[in-house]
Amino acid sequence: MTVDYDPALIGRVFETTEPVPVSAEQIAAFCSAISETNPIFTDEAAAKAGPFGGIVAPPSFAVTFRNGRHFFEHIPRYGKQGFDAGKDVEFVAPIRPGDAVTLNSHVKEIYEKTGRTGSMVFVIVRSTLTNQKGEVVAHVDHRFMNRP
Amino acid sequence: MSNANNLTYETVQIGDALGPAEFYLSKDQVRAYAKTCGMWTPRFTDDEAARKEGLPGMITPGNMSLAILSKLVTDWAGASGARIVRMGTTYRQPVMPDHTLTLQGFVTHKNESDRTAEMDIWIESEEGDRLVIGTATVHFPR
């Protein structure tokens, strides 16, 4: 069975976010929330002598950026509620304090799967994160699962 | 867990273990994550409200599970300069806070051409269920 959607949806960028500034305080709060203790993420002096020449955000910080406010209005819904089924992330470059990160997101794929518990529709949204220098820092594929 | 600062592409072997590391995840810590990351919604912050949504109680955001699991890899890499370049996760079952999680994994592949190692990683419950499974690719500098 194939799921019904407008093929023109795939690949279209509906909204680009405003640049989101990343502060040293935010990185520190994030580290504290996940009990991060590795000095390359938490200690300025140790980080300076470390592999990235200064504090960088832990890689998982890249998945905390939100899509544009109206992004999801453009994506078809299948059933009541979507669940976060998983992520596939490509970490291209570290995110540093002082960066400003912009998100461009598009629908990469829509497909249906039938499992033991019935039919599920997966919507893959790919967000590309770019810093203020125009460098791509990460690609995040969000895998949303819906039950029709 | 020790910071393996001498970790290099050459010393990593297929089958090398990451962890096991025990991690007690409290409800307050999940709330702190939800607050810091702009995910303050009832299912991540309040048992009663989460039950009204049909959940067994407040659950951990998928993004937080990813963060906890990626820490297993970055702890392993220490300050060696090895960097996660790719990571995938599948959320199989809700991760309930106020429980001890076990994080572990092992190296499955090495790719000489781009000096990367791949690993299987997962979060296990106290009952031994794999709640979150994933893979990571780590790049080693020369």
Descriptive tags:
heterodimer, A: 148 residues, mainly beta, Thiol Ester Dehydrase, Chain A, six-stranded antiparallel beta sheet, 3 helices, elongated, B: 142 residues, alpha+beta, five-stranded antiparallel beta sheet
Detailed description of the structure:
The complex is a heterodimer of chains A (148) and B (142). With 148 residues, chain A is mainly beta. Chain A is 14% helix and 38% strand. In chain A, strands 1, 2, 3, 4, 5 and 6 form a six-stranded antiparallel beta sheet that branches. In chain A, a hairpin with a 2-residue loop joins strand 4 (100-115) and strand 5 (118-130). The relative contact order of chain A is 0.24. Chain B has 142 residues and is of the alpha+beta class. Chain B has a five-stranded antiparallel beta sheet with strand order 1-3-4-5-2. In chain B, a hairpin with a 5-residue loop joins strand 4 and strand 5. The mean pLDDT of chain B is 94. The chains are: A mainly beta (148), B alpha+beta (142). Chains A and B meet through helix 1, helix 2 and strand 3 of A and helix 1, helix 4 and strand 2 of B.
